[in-house]
Design brief:
Length: 1262
């Protein structure tokens, strides 16, 4: 119903609504008491709470009004909802506030008026309906009875309901009326369960024609409020009543909070994350731009973060997918400091900022009542907002409703803190064209961590770690991080956003608090000078003075934490210098290529002074010039590459080639990565693997303009004469290439053995083994003597270092022996050629000659002899093709390479014979003198030289075998108590020193890679004697590795048996070794019982039927091969001492170990024919067929027996007794042999072959 309230009508309406008397008051003023018949209706029926549907008919005005009437005296409020003329109107009265609301739902309008005192003057309300006045409220009708008499007029039937009728004649301002009231009879119970409910009231004006005639029809009368009070006594959703009185105001939000908001609009739903801190003046909004189906990254929930720092006046915009960040300035005064069209992308941040501004400013928000949302009772506040705009720029009005949980509801804390009261549940924002609903979910009083460190370049941030005192208390990690962050902020007086990524790290002994400190200006703004440096100095000073201190309370426990030390993990506080490198260095590189899911370890050696380089690579790095993992040694003086196979030791000599891939380019030298120029710039510091590093980066043109970012050890950590590289990152923007090289053991000393090419020349007999004898015994460190001797030879002969191989030193009582191998210095044919790998000539190009040749070097020799210009070598088919001209229009090949002649052979090259003659002359002249200092000045003079010596009996132990005898502990560290130490040694040298140390029962050693220092120890590592230390590792003796393990097997322990209780198989193995080979050759260890049983029997001596299965024990037997080293010497002859057939390699080694008669010092084994041949000190040599020898290997005993027995026989003067004894022994042996043969033939059909059986043969039977 459309209505208009004028000034006069408002005054009348105020009186009617507030001043009207209830029915009880009217009846109390009747001049004449009613009889019992008149007491049929309830006197308090309109005084108490009720609701009813009332149809009001105006006979003269010819119209009807339908209204819902409500009375709520307990809450001092009443209401009428009228339906007329296709409109809904509401009149709501609040007696406490003496205020009435006139609401038009259709017009979305509300007017507020006050209420006048009772004056009894205006009983009629006025509405704009034919200018007729009528009464529209039940209590107003009853007011007319105040000065009138009421009479019962009997019973009637109305609408089929029996009623009692009462009539009253009333007069008001000289106008007379007749009021007829019909109440249901007592026996009639209406739909609301009420007896005596009002049925119909009639009000007629008397004495005039066509006077006022109103009828009131009552339906569904209830004695309580049945409808939802929220829809009855409050303004409808979206309607604001300006000026409305209330004892409620918009509450404050918690000072810090975070929440997820479900934003619904235009059939679209998305989640927005919000975090706010009032003390820090920070607001963070995370959202997905556009709809999920329109987003470039729909797989992510939120990809954009808007971060507003109102203290600094900076807005950060981060894209989490692309990783970029931009900054802009904002005004400090307002959260929403500009107008924006609703729905204009990106609108999410502006929408949230507008709502946050509403909470903070609270301007124009009025309380509109209590409503239920998501079954939560909510206080509702509403206001009209005009901070939005239309397309033409004019302001657009929007109604904003905020739903806050009522006082009876709380949000329980999810982690810590207090429960939240009056938390936001929902916000509605409605305009004429668009509507938004924002539902708050996951509301928490905790602020979300805000990370803007990616918006700052490296020079404007630093990463620190603070060592804290005390021990960690369980479940206090977040509390310590919060208090630690607050302490840093307090000491440095910086904004909250300048402290990032605060994290606590702890173990049983140490606690570190990590944090990132940002400059107060982001990238793209002018720097504030040494802000970070000052901050670090301030924090360091405060920690030194014990000002960094806070207390954590957990129950009755209080823990005090003090900052002990602060360390710079990364940052640009000081400008470092571009590093310089020594002429010599070596390192290990762990190459990580994520795009290939590949990790590779490469060793690189470089000696600039000697023009040598070495790469230990796999086949992928040297194309088909390698047949597998190889050591590529490059001699830049001669232009030759030596490719040595790691598995079989074979060697190929190639022209100098680029042996190593880096960022889609290839390197010839290990130093090419470290050629620095002025394009490298210093970008800051960072801790890598626990080490502080200085970072330099540049786009390197020689490597396809890729970005090279080096991390060099800081000077305070190095202790080295040059900067040690720790890591290299290679980034290619164009091809999305990324690689990381992690460097280990970067040292400036190179052992001579690093460039061992002797295997490349020994096969061709182009190597000479020499021994130079010096007067006097040198018993100190051999490396000093060797270096002095080698330098003397190089200075005199002008040979390259690479021509002197495998130097070693020994001594006796009065002499020192220097042995080495001399490489033939004459040029190799391949030196005259350059190579193009993975190519073959066009098939149409005919070769001059085609040969079947083993190596490229032999092919080069043939090319020189035939005066050709180029050749092709295919390693798979071993085919060499010679060409008169260099091939063109070549094709790709996985097997072939093209070699082109680029140099001419020199005629005056040096030869091995000439070198030997020169050295002999020098020695015989007495001028071969060397001097060096070890503690004191040392002087030695060479007295003689031998050539073509036999170096096969060398006792040098394989480095690999040494390391197998040790186990590296998983954590870096060093032993608290150590014995002797050695400098400038390799890790395998350290193992050798531990094994062969006669003064110390060495159980473990510590090796520190950066310094090359070796510490020996006679204690076994455990949890109490190990202390952490970066770049050092502990290696403990692993005695069990010297045995062959047979899991789940055992045999009856007979003979010399000893059982003990030990903690591990390794301790059991040591017990066996200590007993000696004759007393212990096997042991059984049962882990569950910790039982160790030693036995003098070897498993090879036990019949296979005696070896049984067990579930709790393992069998260990001495590995005979542990006592031998495999020789790479090519065999040409076999020896006749003892030859055994049908025997395994280990059984052959065992036979040599147990042999006493021949004095076994080595053995030869042929796996194809299973032939084992034992060689002793006095051996007779015969020729064997070449096809047998070709597949045989030679093994040298590391601990050969002393030839004492044979010497005693030779010195004995009683030769006759010895001959008689020998002849007698021979006769007895023959008799025993005949008996054995007879027994074997007798039982030949019943005895099965024993797999452990050894067959002996005469040499001429093979």
């Amino acid at each position: 119903m459309m209505f208009k309230v004028n000034e006069k009508g408002i005054k009348m309406l105020h009186t009617i609504l507030i001043g009207c008397l209830t029915l009880t008051q009217v009846l109390g003023q009747l001049s004449e008491p009613m009889n019992d018949d008149k007491q049929i209706f309830d006197r308090d029926i309109f005084k108490n709470a009720f609701q009813s549907i009332v149809e009001i008919n105006d006979e003269n005005g010819k119209f009807s009004i339908l209204e819902y009437e409500y009375n709520d005296p307990d809450n001092k409020r009443d209401a009428i909802i009228q339906f007329a003329d296709k409109n809904t109107s509401r009149i709501i009265q609040y007696k406490d506030f003496k205020q009435v609301l006139f609401i038009s739902d259709g017009k979305r309008q509300c007017k507020v008026s006050g209420i006048s005192p009772i004056n009894g003057t205006y009983p009629f309300g006025e509405i704009n309906l034919s200018n007729k006045k009528f009464i529209y409220r039940s209590s107003s009708v009853m007011k007319l009875l105040a000065n009138s008499r009421m009479f019962s007029s009997g019973k009637n039937i109305i609408r089929g309901i029996p009623v009692k009728t009462f009539v009253a004649n009333i007069e008001w301002q000289s106008t007379k009326f007749k009021l007829t009231m019909n109440f249901a009879a007592n026996e009639w119970i209406n739909i609301g369960g009420v007896a005596g409910s009002p049925i119909r009231f009639t009000l007629e004006q008397t004495g005039v024609k066509q006077g006022l005639n109103h009828t009131y029809e009552y339906h569904s009368f209830f004695k309580s409020i049945q409808d939802n009070s929220e829809t009855v006594f409050e303004s409808p959703k979206g309607i604001v009543c300006p000026g409305r009185k209330s004892n409620m105001s918009l509450p404050d939000l918690p000072p810090t909070f975070s929440a997820s908001i479900e934003l619904t609009s235009d059939s679209q739903v998305k989640i927005i994350d919000v975090s706010y801190s009032k003390p820090d003046q920070l607001l963070r909004i995370d959202y997905q731009p556009g709809g999920n189906e329109d987003s470039p990254h729909p797989e992510f929930v939120n990809t954009i973060s808007e971060i507003y720092d109102y203290n600094a006046g900076i807005r950060y915009l981060r894209n989490h997918v692309l990783g970029n960040c931009s900054t802009s300035k904002i005004k400090n005064s307002s959260l929403a400091d500009e107008k924006q069209m609703l729905g204009e992308a990106p609108y999410e941040g502006y929408l949230i900022r507008s709502i946050m501004q509403s909470f903070i400013q609270k301007k124009d928000f009025e309380y509109v009542g209590l409503r239920t949302i998501r079954n939560i009772d909510c206080f509702v506040f509403a206001a009209h907002k005009k901070q939005f705009m239309l397309e033409d720029g004019s302001p657009e009005s929007a109604t904003c409703e905020i739903y806050l949980s009522s006082n009876d509801w709380t949000v329980l804390p999810d982690k810590s803190g207090q429960a939240t009261v009056n938390y936001p549940v929902m916000v509605n924002l409605d305009t004429a064209d668009i509507s938004y609903q924002l539902s708050f979910i996951d509301f928490s009083g905790q602020q979300k961590e805000t990370d803007v460190s990616s918006c700052y370049e490296a020079s404007k941030k630093m990463h620190i770690s603070i060592l804290l005192s005390g021990n960690y208390i369980k479940s206090t990690k977040e509390v310590i991080e919060t208090l630690g962050k607050a302490m840093i902020r307090k000491l440095l007086s910086i904004d909250a956003l300048q402290i990032q990524n605060v994290q606590l790290s702890y173990d049983a002994n140490l606690m570190y608090l990590y944090a990132s400190i940002l400059d107060n200006t982001p990238e793209g703004t002018k720097s504030q000078g040494s802000t970070l440096r000052t901050a670090f100095q301030t924090l360091s000073s405060a920690i030194a003075q014990r000002e960094f201190i806070f207390t954590v309370s957990v129950g009755n426990i209080k823990a005090e934490y003090i900052g002990l030390h602060v360390r710079l993990d990364a940052g640009k506080l000081y400008k470092a210098k571009l590093p310089n490198f020594d002429d010599n260095f070596r390192y290990q590189s762990e190459i990580v290529t994520p795009s290939k899911n590949n990790i590779e370890l490469v060793k690189i050696f470089y000696d600039r002074s000697k023009n040598l380089s070495r790469f230990d690579v796999n086949q992928n790095h040297c194309a088909n010039l390698c047949s597998g993992p190889s050591d590529v040694i490059q001699d830049f003086t001669r232009g030759v590459s030596y490719v040595i196979d790691k598995f079989n030791g074979s060697c190929q000599i190639q022209p100098l080639f680029q042996a190593f891939d880096v960022s889609q380019s290839r390197m010839e030298s290990g130093a090419q990565l470290f050629y620095f120029d002025k394009t490298y710039k210093y970008v800051g510091q960072q801790h890598v693997r626990g080490m502080l590093t200085n970072i330099f980066e540049s786009y390197v043109a020689s490597f396809q303009n890729n970005l090279f970012r080096f991390y060099f050890l800081d000077e305070g950590w190095s202790g080295s004469p040059f900067s040690v590289p720790v890591k290299l990152e290679i980034v290619s923007d164009g091809s999305n290439f990324y690689r990381t090289d992690n460097y280990f053991e970067f040292l400036d000393d190179i052992l001579m053995s690093a460039f061992d090419i002797s295997s490349c020349y020994r096969e061709n007999n182009k190597i000479t083994d020499l021994q130079i004898t010096f007067k006097g015994a040198y018993k100190l460190r051999s490396v000093n003597f060797i270096i002095a001797a080698v330098n003397k030879i190089i200075d005199f002969t002008h040979l390259p270092l690479i021509n002197i191989q495998n130097p070693e030193l020994s001594y006796d009582e009065d002499k020192t022996y220097f042995r080495f191998s001399l490489i033939d210095p004459s040029p190799q044919p391949i030196e005259l050629f350059t190579v193009k790998s993975n190519l073959k000539p066009n098939p149409n190009l005919k070769a001059k000659t085609q040969l079947k040749i083993q190596t490229p070097n032999e092919c080069a020799s043939s090319c020189i002899k035939n005066n050709c210009k180029a050749f092709t070598y295919c390693k798979g088919r071993k085919v060499c093709q010679l060409f008169t001209e260099s091939p063109t229009n070549n094709q790709d090949s996985d097997d072939c390479n093209i070699y082109t002649k680029t140099k001419e052979q020199k005629s005056n090259s040096l030869s091995s014979d000439q070198v030997l003659r020169d050295l002999n002359s020098l020695i015989h002249s007495g001028t071969f003198e060397i001097s060096f200092t070890v503690d004191t000045e040392q002087h030695f003079t060479a007295v003689s030289m031998l050539s073509n010596i036999d170096r096969s009996n060398s006792k040098s132990v394989s480095s690999v075998q040494n390391m197998k005898m040790f186990t590296k502990l998983s954590k870096s560290g060093t032993l608290k108590s150590s014995g002797p130490f050695f400098k400038q040694v390799s890790v395998d040298d350290c193992a050798n020193l531990c094994i062969n140390n006669e003064m110390l029962n060495c159980e473990a050693f510590t090796y520190c890679y950066l310094k090359g220092i070796c510490f020996l120890s006679d204690i076994h590592p455990n949890d109490t004697n190990v202390q952490p230390m970066d770049a050092c590792n502990i290696f403990q003796r692993n005695y069990a590795n010297m045995f062959d393990q047979i899991p789940g097997k055992t045999f009856p322990m007979k003979g010399n048996v000893l059982s003990v209780i030990v903690q591990s198989a390794d301790v059991c193995a040591k017990s066996c070794i200590d007993k000696g080979l004759k007393s212990c050759q096997s042991f059984e260890y049962c882990p569950s019982k910790e039982m160790c049983t030693l036995s003098s029997r070897h498993v090879m001596d036990v019949p296979s039927t005696d070896i049984i299965t067990t579930e709790i024990c393992n069998l260990y037997t001495v590995s005979p091969l542990q006592h031998f080293v495999h020789s790479t010497t090519k065999m040409e002859k076999l020896n006749s001492n003892l030859l055994v057939k049908n025997i395994s390699l280990k059984a052959c080694a065992k036979l040599c170990m147990e042999d006493e008669g021949y004095g076994c010092i080595s053995f030869n084994y042929c796996p194809v024919t299973s032939i084992c041949q034992i060689t002793g000190a006095n051996q007779k040599t015969i020729n064997i067929e070449a096809n047998i020898v070709a597949n045989c290997s030679h093994y040298i005993r590391l601990d050969p027996p002393s030839p004492v027995a044979s010497k005693m026989i030779e010195k004995s003067g009683n030769k006759g007794k010895l001959i008689t004894l020998g002849f007698g022994t021979f006769i007895i042996g023959c008799l025993l042999g005949l008996i054995t043969i007879f027994l074997i033939h007798k039982n030949a059909c019943t005895v099965k072959d024993d797999p452990m059986k050894v067959n002996f043969y005469k040499l001429d039977k093979i």
